[in-house]
């Protein structure tokens, strides 16, 4: 049996980026790109993006994101997380992101182009890295904007007692450490979903590439639970303003909603949470979309809808350019309609 897979290596660093190797507390260096607004090295607020999907690659299109954000006056720092692409260390899910987030924020806050204020933005795993950084309680972290993610990302979702929702085994959980977190590179492939047990293909893939995934071996067949947040849950740390984006058709929505429910029980965090509910799936495709993968031009066209809510949020809570009351407490898009509806609470009154 042969497994067909595509190996994705690091893309070339964009000309607009300044590249650094940032040292973590244990001596590991993380590959980091800095984008500054055109024509200035003056200090200003920074948006940090820590991701495992290649900071220069097409999948997360961070160079386009950075171009848009610097056009709004922000400095942007994009970093390959530990063990991924150009960064040193072992590719290991979840457990290093709090300390590495703290150390990176510390580095950013000491740069000549930084005014000491840092925000974080991103989807999925690079939404999780924001929560991990919040758990580290670095004082320079002023706001976060996690999208389609959660603090318990990768855990099996559980039903609330008395609810009609059943436990769902998300097979993608076991595939993820063999694609995006197998090693420094990304491997794109799929097992034969018609075969049982499908773990047979997972083992065959590792034999073919000649290395094993440490994250997979920690999860299967006997899970070894390593602490994600050494200093405690993000919700035990001082609250920072959070724009929490949840997708109606996102496979990670159960974890997003779990965080929202936890926040509701923490007064300081509840005061600082703003909800943005989008009619999207995990890849940000909207309800009713029937096309294929986005072209470069389509990606550019989606940037305002994708980024403006976070930038407007950061304008208020990082730059201080506006009143907190100007940001709706809850915004949601009803599938098949244009724009957002607003509410002071979720669910809205009368629902």
Automatic annotation (TrEMBL):
Q: Which Pfam families match?
A: Peptidase_S15
This protein is called: X-Pro dipeptidyl-peptidase
Q: Which InterPro entries match?
A: AB_hydrolase_fold (IPR029058), CocE/Ser_esterase (IPR005674), Xaa-Pro-like_dom (IPR000383), Xaa-Pro_dipeptidyl-ppase/CocE (IPR050585)
Species of provenance? Leifsonia aquatica ATCC 14665
* Residues in Xaa-Pro dipeptidyl-peptidase-like domain copies: 26-166
Q: Example GO molecular function term?
A: hydrolase activity
Cited PANTHER family: COCE_NOND FAMILY, PUTATIVE (AFU_ORTHOLOGUE AFUA_7G00600)-RELATED, PEPTIDASE S9 PROLYL OLIGOPEPTIDASE
């Amino acid at each position: 049996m042969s497994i067909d897979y595509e190996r994705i290596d690091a893309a070339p660093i964009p000309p607009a980026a300044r590249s650094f190797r940032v040292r973590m507390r244990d001596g590991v260096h993380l590959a980091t790109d800095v984008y500054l607004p055109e024509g200035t090295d003056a200090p200003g607020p920074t948006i940090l993006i820590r991701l495992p999907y290649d900071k220069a690659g097409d999948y997360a299109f961070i160079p386009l994101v950075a171009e848009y954000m610097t056009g709004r006056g922000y400095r942007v720092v994009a970093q390959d997380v530990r063990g991924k692409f150009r960064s040193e260390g072992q590719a290991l899910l979840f457990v290093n992101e709090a300390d590495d987030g703290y150390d990176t924020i510390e580095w950013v806050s000491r740069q000549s182009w930084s005014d000491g204020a840092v925000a974080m933005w991103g989807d999925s795993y690079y939404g999780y890295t924001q929560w991990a950084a919040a758990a580290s309680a670095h004082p320079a972290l002023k706001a976060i904007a996690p999208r389609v993610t959660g603090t318990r990302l990768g855990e099996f979702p559980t039903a609330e007692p008395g609810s009609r929702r059943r436990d769902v085994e998300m097979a993608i959980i076991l595939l993820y450490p063999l694609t995006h977190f197998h090693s420094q590179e990304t491997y794109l492939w799929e097992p034969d979903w018609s075969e049982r047990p499908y773990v047979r293909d997972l083992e065959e893939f590792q034999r073919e590439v000649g290395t094993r995934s440490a994250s997979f071996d920690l999860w299967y067949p006997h899970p070894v639970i390593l602490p994600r947040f050494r200093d405690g849950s993000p919700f035990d740390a001082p609250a920072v303003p959070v724009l929490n984006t949840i997708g109606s058709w996102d496979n990670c929505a159960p974890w997003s909603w779990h965080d929202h429910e936890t926040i509701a029980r923490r007064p300081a965090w509840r005061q600082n949470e703003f909800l943005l509910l989008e009619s999207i799936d995990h890849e940000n495709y909207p309800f009713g979309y029937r096309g294929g993968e986005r072209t470069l031009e389509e990606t550019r066209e989606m940037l305002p809808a994708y980024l403006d809510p976070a930038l407007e949020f950061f304008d208020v809570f990082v730059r201080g350019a506006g009143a907190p009351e100007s940001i709706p407490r809850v915004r949601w898009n009803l599938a098949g309609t244009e724009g957002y509806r607003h509410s002071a609470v979720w669910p809205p009154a009368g629902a």
